[in-house]
Structure formats: C-alpha cells, structure tokens
Amino acid sequence: MAVCPSVDPDRWRNEFEGFASRIGGRFARVESRKRARSFLRGLMAGLPRVNCWTLAEHAGETSPGGMRHFLAGAVWDDDGLRTDLRDYVAERFADAEAVLVIDETGDLKKGKMTVGVQRQYTGTAERIENAQVAVYLTYATPAGHAFLDNALYLPQSWISDPARCQAAGVPDGVAFRTKPELARTMIATALDAGVPARWATGDEVYGNDPALRAALARRGLGYVLAVAKTHQIDTKAGKRKAIDLAVTLPEPAWTWISAGPGAKGQRLYDWAFIATSDQDLPGQHYLMIRRNIHTGEYAFYRAHSPAPVPLAAFVRVAGIRWTVEDDFQNSKELAALDEHQVRRWTSWHRWTLLAMLAHAYLAVTTATAHDTQPADGLIPLTVNEVRHLLVHLAIPRPTPPTAFVLAWSWWRRHHQAHAQTSHHDRQATALQLN
After folding, report:
1. Is the residue at 420 inside a domain?
2. Which comes out higher in pLDDT, residue 283 or 234?
C-alpha cells in the first residue's frame, strides 16, 4: 500500500501542542490550561454526543463539574483568546485579496431561558422556530478559510427584559444590535487589527442594509452583497425594483462567467451588470444580476469596488460567499459548534470560541497538507479526513481502564434517575394544583 506523504501524524501532533501552548497564556491557572487542551481534543474527537459529561469522560476526569466550571466560572482572557483565533487564521491564510464573508446560523432550542432564544427565522430549519441565532465572520482565501469571529444576536425581546438578561448572565450595557450592525463591528475589528482583505460578501440580510454598505465603502473595501428582487435601485427614471430591471435587459447584456469550481464542475451562470450609484459613495457601483442558465432564475447583488476591476472579479467574490456554509457544516460536524448545552452568556461565548479554534486548527492543518503532493490516484486531504486521521493517529485517546468506564456508567445512570424523579415530582405537583 502506498503511503500518502501529506499525512504526517508526528507533525500534526507537534502543531497541535504548539497551537494549544499558543493560547495557554489566556487562562489564569494551570488546571484551566490543561482543561483547554482536553476540551479542544474532545471537540474534535468525533464523540457521538458532545457535552460537559462526554468531554470530561474523554479527558479522563471523574465528573463533569470541572468542565462546567471551566466554561462558566474559570478565569479566562476571553478577548485575548478571540484575538488569538483571529491572528492564527490571518497569519496562516493571509492574502491581500482575501474575502470577509458574513452570515448567521441558528441553533434550535427548547424553552425560553437559553440566552438569545426566541421564535425567529433561522436558515438551519428554513422556517421560524424557537432558536438562538449568531452572526459569524469567515476569512476566505485560495489557501483556505476559517472563522475569524462571531457575535450572538440578542433580540429586542431580550433587551427589553432586564430580569431575563440578568438570569442569563448578559453583561450590563449590552444594547440591541441588528445583524448587520454586528457584522459591521466584527469587520471593523478585523480591519483595525491589520487583517489583510480586499472584499466582503454576505446574503440579503446584509446587502439590504445601507449603513453596512456605506461603512464598507468608506473603509475602501469592495463588496458583493446579495439583495432581494424587490430591492430599489436609483436610475435616471427614478427608483426601480431589481427584478424589473433584470427582465428588460436584452440578451447581449448577459455574459457567461463561472463563479468558481463546485462539486460537479464549474458553476456557470449568465451575469449582467448595471452601473449605478449608492448614497453618493465613492468608487464603482453596480447592480449585479445572476441568471441560472437552465431555469432562468434570478439572483441580485449590490457590488462595489474602490477602483475599476474586471467584472469577473465581482463574480469570483459572489462565488466565495458559500465558504461560510462549508465552515458552518464542518465546524458543527467536526468541532461540535452547535452541540453546546449551556444557557448563559459567558458559557455560550466560550464554547463557540473553543469550537472555532478547533475548526481553525483543522482548516490550517488541511491547508498545510495540501502543500504536499498526495499519492497517485488520491484527491487532496479534506478537512473531514484530516479530523479522522488526527483522532486515530495524531491525538488518540488512551483506552480507559474498565473501572473508569463502569464508574462513568454509574454516574450517568444515577444522574438520569435523579432527573427522572424530579420530573415526575413536578408533574405530580402540577396535577394536584389543577
């Protein structure tokens, strides 16, 4: 059997230890530093379920109490750790032509007490559900892509209920901010920190926000932001809907351009561009229209560049927007981004930050492996395959002794029996009151 030179468990192990040491200084106590390393290993371990119970068991601890305290009460430099994530991704994938991709994802939740939860639309379910929503910022370059930052969306129903916010540990002074406002802050933070980037992209939530478009243009950042078909465009004849402009374009106005490679080859569409203006902002502005070459379905974008660029450059940026979907899928499947079972502000931010760090490590390791030619007849390593190999070859978990396995089985069943009894008692009390 041929050996793939791009698989190097010893190097991966050393890089993980270096990665863990790099962030170790953000934790005040040596116990927390060790637990951070164990937490990251557990997030990437492919456990059937990921929570403080399973993470503690995987780490060889005798109860979940230490992991719970690590998330909720241990002393961290949370802002410093977020800086470490941003710097790690930017250093490994740095590119002056990089694209900052913004999008949100939702986690379905039960009840009302988990921070930020309410009935709201989430793309995860593609409908209105009881969910918690957060906005994420991805850094995308030809070398690779990973999250730079995230922000929890706290609905107005929460901000207007101080008691509910206090119970969930929301810090004093947190005000309502729209998703585009959260995006604007994260992008500004990244640019102020020196992250190299030339473009930004996002879906209709962000493209329909004039304040975000203005902020990006004034920063000298080009953008390709999706807008609705009913989006109003200023023309010499007055305001017109984007769809009304699209259907009047003659056939020679359309150009066949690829939005980049996909799973089934090049993603070819018809594209048309209409020069426009936007709030008297400087630079080149367009309404960009995409038409499916098979179905004729339209999609619309507001596009801007500080200086003239080929129209294919805008199309490339539009195609890169889907990298954030890959990051959502991979970080949830491979780093347990959405498996947090926590209710409070601090615990949620810490869990998702550690998951983003684990995903960044996987993304960087995969990109590094791509620098080595794979064996004949093999595709380059994917992030899924890298995670699989890491778990089995680079950072495997020693086989626990029988007594340890049995002790955890007893602990789980004892806890579940206590929870079952409490539930039955509450039901009986409710029936008596009725």
Report:
1. yes
2. 283
